């Protein structure tokens, strides 16, 4: 026997007004956390810009700042992923209200996409939780912003080794310029390649994860 979903609760005028104010609050929180995402991205761009200025200030300047700035970029990325997980909660609630509460009022006919939308929203308030994991959040932020930041960092580092103090003439010379203290250049470059491949792999994995979630998710029944 097919299970009959429970009927939607009929909202009074006062409850509809309260829900409208709730939506405004969720939009405010979503906007606030979106600005915080922009802040950490700006920090990454600024620190990379400082590293570029120091490294290319003179032909004999060390490329080491472009290596060390990667540590800061990693820290900012992890911080931004944490902020994104909060932002995603508020964004999902706003989108849920827009889809299941406001859209049916604006379109003629019965457009309730989920008979239990009120229960799902109430459950999200009663049992708040993140809608995505830290790894997925990091992958999304890499895809949106940090892939370009990392690409600029890697390109600038390789360009510095190739052109300063003079254009490189051999592979051995190129490797020797990448030496950092006791670490030979080939090890430094291998670590740099691992650094870039790791972030690119995480971005690709999160993209695949989002696609799998979209395919397996029942239409209009999930938040986040």
Ordered list of secondary-structure elements with their pairings:
Blueprint: H1 13-55, H2 64-106, H3 117-126, H4 134-163, H5 171-177, H6 185-216
Pfam families: DUF2270 (PF10028)
Organism: Paracoccus liaowanqingii
Protein name: DUF2270 domain-containing protein
Short description:
The chain has 224 residues and is mainly α. It is 74% helix and 0% strand.
Account of the protein in words:
The chain is mainly alpha-helical and 224 residues long. It has one domain. It is built from six helices and no strands. The chain has helices at residues 13-55, 64-106, 117-126, 134-163, 171-177, 185-216. α1 runs parallel beside α4 (134-163) and α2 (64-106) packs antiparallel against α4. The longest helix is centred in the first third of the chain and has 43 residues, at 13-55. The two termini are 31 Å apart. The model has no long low-confidence stretch (mean pLDDT 86).
């Amino acid at each position: 026997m097919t299970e009959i979903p429970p009927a939607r609760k009929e909202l009074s005028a006062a409850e509809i007004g309260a829900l409208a104010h709730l939506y405004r609050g969720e939009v405010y929180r979503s906007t606030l956390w979106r600005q915080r995402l922009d802040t950490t991205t700006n920090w990454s761009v600024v620190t990379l810009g400082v590293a570029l200025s120091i490294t290319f200030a003179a032909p004999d300047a060390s490329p080491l700042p472009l290596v060390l700035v990667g540590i800061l970029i990693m820290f900012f990325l992890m911080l931004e992923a944490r902020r994104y997980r909060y932002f995603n909660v508020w964004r999902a609630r706003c989108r849920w209200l827009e889809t299941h509460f406001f859209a049916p009022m604006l379109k003629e006919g019965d457009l309730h996409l989920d008979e239990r939308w009120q229960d799902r929203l109430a459950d999200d308030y009663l049992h708040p939780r993140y809608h995505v994991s830290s790894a997925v959040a990091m992958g999304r932020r890499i895809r949106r912003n940090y892939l370009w930041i990392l690409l600029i960092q890697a390109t600038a580092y390789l360009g510095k080794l190739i052109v300063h103090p003079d254009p490189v003439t051999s592979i051995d010379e190129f490797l020797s310029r990448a030496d950092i203290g006791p670490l030979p250049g080939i090890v430094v470059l291998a670590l740099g390649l691992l650094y870039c491949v790791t972030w690119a792999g995480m971005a690709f994995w999160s993209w695949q994860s989002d696609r799998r979630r979209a395919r397996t998710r029942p239409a209009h029944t999930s938040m986040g």
